[in-house]
């Protein structure tokens, strides 16, 4: 196909797509048939490739779509015309980036529009969710030192089970039963760890072990939790509109969920004043839930909880007393420099002599050798299900 014919075909396709918009009630038009009847001469392979490129250009992420479609990819990172993908072992740069010079800004703006957000010189930073559920963050020049910087956390509809995580080495074989028992015994868990350590992966796997007779409600800023459990209600916070109205916070979602007959509450990430509402829910009959929290180690969790409690107007002592009563165990996940994710530590919260929150680790693993139990201080016991 000549360059002129190629441009004409693309222009015709975009015009057709504009006149036949796709929404949740309208199936996508048959692009392969449209290409075949376009009047251009194609071989079977070229016809298939052209239809795929058109579909990705009109409804997907263009040159990035091939990576979003790869089931092994968890993150796609763009900086100008350079591209990295993470397949579970840390970001690896793609030597032959499919992004041409200047294309990163064009696609950042287009993806933001598809996510229903604004991205331009007046609003050079956006955080949104793509139609397929992937989390999308973009920064334009001059805030970024490239034309555009994009970070896409790929959303997967199926997440690993506890068995899968044991098989791949995230959970040591000796702890597999304890993880399942924690769910069975309705332990309220806090999953801590750094960015990309596997907090949501573990949370989703735990959900797969919840009895199918129970109703799970998930609460998230952007949807990441996915499970094959048959009864999951997913609630998602939303920012205010351009008039500053219509915001729905995680605190709002916690309040709403309590009136939805939940058996389990799962908070995707606790990072603000919603900690107060979550602890109150766990302390008032809604046991068996879980939440994730950013922390560098299991012993850093108390300080993190107290800081979040302060955002909710809670003093340190109140936060400490609420947390030690609400949370049955903390499980900390880590990631090695090589990208291996694993459960590193378990701990229980307790209140010290100064009435402030501390944590007592009771089991530890380095991701390689045999996991070990850690001696506990006098008066502190391991959970009954351990």
Automatic annotation (TrEMBL):
- Alphabetical list of SUPFAM superfamilies matching this protein: P-loop containing nucleoside triphosphate hydrolases (SSF52540)
- Location of the Bacterial type II secretion system protein E domain: 62-326
Pfam family example for this protein? T2SSE
A molecular function annotated in GO for this UniProt entry is:
ATP hydrolysis activity
Out of the domains of life, which is the source?
A: Bacteria
Q: PANTHER family in the record, alphabetically?
A: TWITCHING MOTILITY PROTEIN PILT, TYPE IV PILUS RETRACTATION ATPASE PILT
The record ties this protein, via NCBIfam families, to: heli_sec_ATPase
Name the protein family: Belongs to the GSP E family.
| Descriptive protein name | Type II secretion system protein E
């Amino acid at each position: 196909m000549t360059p002129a014919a190629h441009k004409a075909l693309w222009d015709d396709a975009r015009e057709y797509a504009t006149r036949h918009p796709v929404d949740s009630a309208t199936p996508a038009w048959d692009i392969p048939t449209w290409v075949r009847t376009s009047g251009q001469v194609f071989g079977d392979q070229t016809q298939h490739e052209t239809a795929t490129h058109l579909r990705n250009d009109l409804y997907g992420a263009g040159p990035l779509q091939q990576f979003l479609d790869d089931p092994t990819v968890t993150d796609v990172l763009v900086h100008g015309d350079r591209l990295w993908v993470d397949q579970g072992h840390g970001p690896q740069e793609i030597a032959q980036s499919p992004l041409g010079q200047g294309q990163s800004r064009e696609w950042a703006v287009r993806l933001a529009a598809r996510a229903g957000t604004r991205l331009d010189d007046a609003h050079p930073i956006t955080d949104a969710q793509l139609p397929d559920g992937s989390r999308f963050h973009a920064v334009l020049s001059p805030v970024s030192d490239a034309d555009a910087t994009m970070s896409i956390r790929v959303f997967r509809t199926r997440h690993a089970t506890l068995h899968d995580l044991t098989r791949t080495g995230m959970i040591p074989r000796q702890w597999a039963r304890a993880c399942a028992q924690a769910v069975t015994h309705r332990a309220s868990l806090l999953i801590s760890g750094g960015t990309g350590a596997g907090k949501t992966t573990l949370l989703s796997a735990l959900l797969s072990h919840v009895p199918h007779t129970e109703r799970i409600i998930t609460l998230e800023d952007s949807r990441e939790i996915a499970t094959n459990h048959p009864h999951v209600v997913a609630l998602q916070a939303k920012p205010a509109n351009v008039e500053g109205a219509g915001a729905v916070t995680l605190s709002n979602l916690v309040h709403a969920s309590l009136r939805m007959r939940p058996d389990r509450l799962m908070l995707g990430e606790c990072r603000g004043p919603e900690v107060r509402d979550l602890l109150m829910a766990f302390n008032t009959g809604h046991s068996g839930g879980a939440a994730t929290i950013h922390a560098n180690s299991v012993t850093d969790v108390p300080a993190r909880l107290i800081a979040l409690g302060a955002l909710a107007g809670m003093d340190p002592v109140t936060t400490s007393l609420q947390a030690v009563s609400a949370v049955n165990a903390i499980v900390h996940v880590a990631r090695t420099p090589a990208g291996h994710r694993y459960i590193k530590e378990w701990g229980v919260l307790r209140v010290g002599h100064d009435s402030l929150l501390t944590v007592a680790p009771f089991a530890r693993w380095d991701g390689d050798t045999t996991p070990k139990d850690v001696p506990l201080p006098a008066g502190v016991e391991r959970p009954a299900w351990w």
